[in-house]
Write a structure and sequence with these properties.
The chain is mostly helical and 394 residues long. Among the domains are: 60-143 and 173-203, no CATH class; 238-326, no CATH class. 79% of the residues lie in helices and 0% in strands. It contains 17 helices and no strands. It is globular, with a radius of gyration of 26 Å.
């Protein structure tokens, strides 16, 4: 009833969904009418409990839901390749298998190439941290803090200290994590590959069956529009971002290699992977490169050149290249992206942070087709983008 009243009022005032400004006006009017309703604490409590239950379910079923979401997003990235192979008379069943084999081979080669340098950095991590602390001592704010730190170090180094032995007998946290998480990781990986193969091999079959279950023709048309736009937007976004991240990793890796930093291939791959996580990924990469450079060179001033190079390339990519190329595809404002990263990381760890922005983008596309969810589209959207829902029905 309220939605109908909103539609009638906007139609009477000459509003149309063909312009982003009018979509914004419709959303604002909807918010105003919702705020005028009487406040129901019981309804608010039930809504809050429902949201908490959804988040708990997502967290509890992460070993099942994570492979499903990742397989769905990878299918959007790889589906154009399957269709391209189908145009040259390669069946989709065979094409999907060839793509998965090629993907697994590329991942295996990458891991084998990066395993040795990564293991070397991890092996010298304890000594490296002590060396890093020594090199950063001149940057302490005051001599009092240096003296206090020295006193603590002497206390730890005292032979009769009982706490030292307690620290040494603890199990290594990385080893314990690998021991606990490896079976879950293997199971999730197998499930991911199976789901990804079927999503690629039977292109459009699942969405076709879902559309058949919808009762009315308008619902079927809307579902087709949502599916087509999600596939188009997400596929282009993932493909574009993947290419940009690979180019960024190549640029940073080549530059730091020419400047003398060891294992430039490892650093380039790290930069490319971390850049899938907006904001926090670049920050983490800069911190890691700073530590690696400080440990590799005696001159602190020269070592700081390497994170500066990373920052320069990252700024160029984040502020000019990516916005220019991607445009309005899956665009989300900075606050929504940070919140999505924090929630995704809390629920699903690093994988959740990587999947956070594409997943919110998909929700944004779906919300743009539902009149009552238009306010969420406005809240999630970037000010510099065109509205994703400007030509949508309803």
């Amino acid at each position: 009833m309220e939605s109908t009243a909103v539609e009638a009022k906007l139609t009477h005032e000459g509003y149309d969904d063909s312009e982003p400004e009018q979509v914004t006006a419709r959303a604002r009017l909807r918010i105003a009418e919702l705020l005028e309703r009487p406040f129901d604490i019981r309804s608010l409590a039930l809504t809050g409990l429902f949201i908490l239950a959804v988040f708990y379910t997502i967290y509890y079923l992460r070993s099942v839901l994570l492979p499903i979401v990742l397989a769905l997003l990878l299918s959007y990235l790889l589906r154009p390749i399957v269709r391209g192979l189908a145009r040259i008379k390669i069946p989709t069943l065979l094409g999907a298998a060839l793509i998965l084999i090629t993907l697994l081979a590329a991942i295996t080669l990458e891991i084998s190439a990066l395993a040795t340098p990564a293991a070397g950095w991890l092996a010298k991590a304890p000594d490296g941290l002590r060396e890093l602390e020594y090199k950063l001592l001149p940057m302490k704010r005051s001599m009092a803090e240096v003296a206090k730190a020295s006193g603590e170090i002497e206390k730890i180094a005292t032979p009769d200290s009982g706490s030292k032995m307690a620290v040494e007998v603890k199990r290594h946290p990385i080893t314990e994590t690998l021991y606990v998480r490896t079976p879950e990781f293997v199971t999730s990986s197998v499930l991911l590959l199976i789901l990804l193969y079927f999503l690629l091999a039977y292109d459009g079959v699942f969405i076709g069956k879902l559309i058949k279950l919808l009762p009315t023709l308008s619902d079927k048309k809307r579902a087709v529009s949502i599916a087509q736009e999600i596939e188009s937007q997400v596929s282009r976004y993932l493909f574009t971002v993947t290419i940009i991240n690979c180019c960024l990793g190549l640029a940073v890796g080549t530059t730091v290699g020419l400047l003398g930093l060891r294992n430039p291939v490892m650093w380039g791959a790290l930069v490319a992977i971390l850049n899938f996580v907006p904001y926090l990924g670049a920050l983490t990469g800069i911190i890691c490169m700073t530590i690696g450079a400080v440990l590799s060179f005696d001159s602190l001033g020269y070592a700081l050149i390497f994170p500066a190079v990373y920052l320069a390339f990252g700024t160029l990519e984040g502020n000019f290249i990516t916005p220019k190329i991607t445009g309005s595809r899956i665009s989300i404002n900075a606050l929504a992206a940070i919140l999505a990263l924090l929630i995704g990381g809390k629920l699903w760890g690093i994988a959740g942070m990587i999947l956070a922005v594409p997943s919110i983008g998909i929700l944004k596309i779906i919300f743009s087709y539902v009149p009552s969810f238009k306010p969420f589209v406005i809240l999630l959207g970037d000010e510099s983008e065109g509205d994703l829902g400007k030509n949508k029905p309803g």
